[in-house]
Amino acid sequence: xxxxxxxxxxxxxxxxxxxxxxxxxxxxxxxxxxxxxxxxxxxxxxxxxxxxxxxxxxxxxxxxxxxxxxxxxxxxxxx
Length: 79
Hints:
The chain is mainly β. The protein has a single domain (about 5-65), classed as Tumour Suppressor Smad4. It is about 0% helix and about 45% strand. It has no helices and eight strands.
């Protein structure tokens, strides 16, 4: 039985709006820096913007830069 979990994503705004994809990484760094796991060169996106960690059937989101918005909530503090 394959227990691998993957993260599927869809970009909802900006230059990459409509882009979909998936990653099999258990921990994924998202940002505009070329050392990020998922790189989006986008105005307002920090080099290290967000870290997503898969924890079983849950995910942990860590804001690494100010201005993170998830589902319209712009009050997510970095750290």
